[in-house]
Design brief:
The chain contains 3 helices and 2 strands. The chain is mainly alpha-helical. A two-stranded antiparallel sheet has the order 1-2. Helix 1 runs antiparallel to helix 3. The protein starts with a helix and ends in a 17-residue tail after the last helix.
Length: 100
């Protein structure tokens, strides 16, 4: 998704994040062959990787629970990444048993 499409989606997504509409616009989102069911695309739309979860005071009856928070912070991150040719890091961590 390019930054212009990201901004357009964020504008449509904002009423969902505020609770004004119950239907998630991300469910119907499609861009250049990449859609809402694609994990990679969802991560590109939410580079800050923040979600509506228990820590933010949301619970499972709320339709926003478990959904990504897509806002200006993500748009700015996406813009900087494309303008300045930065890269998103795909970091993973594993626990390794210590050796005596």
């Amino acid at each position: 998704a390019d930054v212009t499409e990201m901004q357009s989606l964020a504008t449509k997504y904002s009423p969902f994040t505020s609770g004004a509409i119950p239907d998630n616009p991300l469910d119907e989102w499609q861009s250049a062959g990449c859609g809402s069911n694609c994990g990679w695309c969802r991560e590109q739309l939410n580079p800050s990787l923040d979600f509506f979860d228990n820590r933010a005071g949301y619970s499972s009856p709320d339709p926003r629970f478990g959904q990504p928070v897509i806002n200006a912070k993500d748009i700015i991150g996406g813009s900087r990444t494309t303008q300045f040719q930065n890269r998103f890091l795909d970091v993973t961590a594993d626990c390794v048993a210590s050796h005596p």
